[in-house]
Each structure stands twice: as C-alpha cells, then as structure tokens.
C-alpha cells in the first residue's frame, strides 16, 4: 500500500518504528509489533512438517515480497518526482509514505507498481518450481515442507497481487480505480465513487465471513470499510483547503513564553487561557515550542521550578502565511499538532489542528449554504 505522507517533520518517522537500513535510498523501518508477528509465525510453523529453518525462510520470503512490493511503489513515485519519505513494515503489511499525493495519471502507475512486483516474483518462482520438476498443489498448504517452499512463495506473491488489486481502499486497486475515474470527473467524486465500490466489497467479504464463520474475512471487511471512510474524509478535507492559505486559518491572538520562564509559569498560562501550545522566545527570537504534553511531562518529572527551555521542542514546524493550507496540513502530521507561522523571521501566528478543523467546518457550512463569499472573506488579515 501507499499513502501521502502526513509527517515530514521529525524525519517523518512513524511512531513505534525503528530504522534499520535503506532500500533504493528510502529508509525502511519496522514497527515493533512486526517482530512479534515474525516470531509468532515462526513458532506456529515449527510445529508442522516443515523445519524451523524452512519456516524462517518462508516468513523471511513472505515479508521480503511485501517489502519489494512497497519498493515498487517508491520507484514508480520517484519516476514522477515524488519522494518516498519512508517504508514502514507492520503486521498487516507494508506502507510506503509519499511526500505528496500523486496526480490521477501518476497515481495509476504508482499504485499499480506494487502488485506488478508481486506478479513478477510469483511468475518467476512458479517458473523456477516447474523447471526443477516441482508442482504447486493445494495439499502443500496443509502439509508444508522445505521442498515445496518455492511453490508456496510463488502462490503467496500471486495472492498478494490479486488481493491488493481489489477495487477498494486502502488497497492499491482502490487507488487504481480512483485514478481511472478521475480522468473524467473531479477527484472528490472519483474518491466517493471508489469508496462506495469498496463498501460493497467490504459488505461481500463480511457476509462471506459471517456465513462461513471466517473471522479473517470479517476483519478485512472492517479494514476495507474504515479505509474507504478515511480516504473520503481526507479527500474532502483537501478539497475544502483548495485555494486557502495559512493566513486564512492561522491564530493571530496568542500568548508566548520566555525561555527563562518556569514550568509553573507555563502551567499558569495554560490554565488562564484556552491555548495549548506556546511559542518560546529569547528576547525577540523564537527558539522553541512548548505543547501541553511536554509541559505536563516536565511538571511530573522535573518539577514546577524547572525551565521551559528544557522541555520545549526546538525542531518545530515553520510555515509562511502565503503557504497553501493543504501543504501546511501535511507538515503538521507529527509536529505536535501545531506549527509556527513566520513572515521574514517574525512570528505572526500559530496553526493548530483544532483551528484548522474549525476553519474547514466553517468553509463546509458556507459552501453548503451556497454563500457567494468564501470563509476567508471575513477574516482577511494584514501580516
């Protein structure tokens, strides 16, 4: 799978993941739960007719296939000038995080590249199996052995390819379907139609799972339904932000702290205002950002007399008032839900997740009421 990256801040690293190596220049990280699944699969497989070494090779081959699938996305995205900030391996598969949303014509090839890698791997392993006099039979899955390992990996790759091509989010087939529909209609309409198709797929999978007491199908039906809902919400938000800038949504009435203030001073300000994030200044220069979570941690661990300079985030996100709001939203993914807005190095505002959501709600209401004026018409600012 692949998705636009929402976290270029903090090196784009997904929470709970560990970076180990680079593949084609892309950081590959493993979520800690991934290793738990690997150990569990090897343990369960060792109780069958296959050796522990053979089981380990199958598990390694399985996840290597998933990793190469994500590398296919990354290489296709690179062809269109889209950076892949990281590949994260998780228990349910891999995730290639792209720096931006591909255009419909780009999304078709980027999404299709992953399953194509699995098709090539599956066909290659299948050809090698038959060239060695082997066969691929259903009984191999009931009696796994070291001898039928290549054939099982071949079938696994073909299954991964076909499953990922289901026309439903968050699978690659959903993105392929959207890109084809977007060739003749707006991206929002294409996303909603693809989501409806995905909902039908989810319903069919869920019904089959219920009738056959197969909880795996029920689980994947839930994943497909949630994926469709999230994709529609994300696309709708992007549509609402179209044409808006940071200046339209940012907070201009805010309080600041000095780096010599104590955590007690920050806590008093937290209680006295509705503000959750506080820029920290040294004279006129902005040197950090203290959010509510960091404040509470410092209060508990260092005490109220410690300084905010020891708890603030020095690597905060920086935006300009003229930046497109959609671009700014991507930069806020993992930046503590707040970014500071500067004009010629002067702090002029804050952009938080809360006021961004409020801006989108107001714009949606005005659009639904058919107002001739946009939501930013009443909040013009001179910065």
Characterization of this structure:
It is a single chain. α2 runs antiparallel to α3. With 383 residues, this protein is α/β, with parallel strands linked by helices. The chain folds into three domains: 165 residues, no CATH class; 75 residues; 123 residues, CBS-domain. β6, α10 and β7 form a beta-alpha-beta unit. It is globular, with a radius of gyration of 25 Å. 52% of the residues lie in helices and 16% in strands. The longest helix is centred in the first third of the chain and has 28 residues.
Topology:
Layout (H helix, E strand, L loop, with lengths): L1 E3 L12 E7 L2 E6 H14 L6 H28 L4 E7 L2 E6 L5 H28 L7 H4 L6 H16 L7 H10 L5 H25 L3 H27 L4 H4 L7 E2 L4 H10 L4 E6 L2 E7 H10 L15 E3 L5 H7 L6 E6 L2 E7 H16 L15
Parallel strand pairs: 1-5, 3-4, 6-7, 9-10
Antiparallel strand pairs: 2-3, 4-5, 7-8, 10-11
Helix pairs in contact: 1-2, 2-3, 2-5, 3-5, 3-6, 6-7, 7-8, 10-11
InterPro entries: CBS_dom (IPR000644), CBS_dom_sf (IPR046342), Peptidase_M50 (IPR008915), UCP006404_Pept_M50_CBS (IPR016483)
GO molecular function: metal ion binding; metallopeptidase activity
Membrane topology: Multi-pass membrane protein
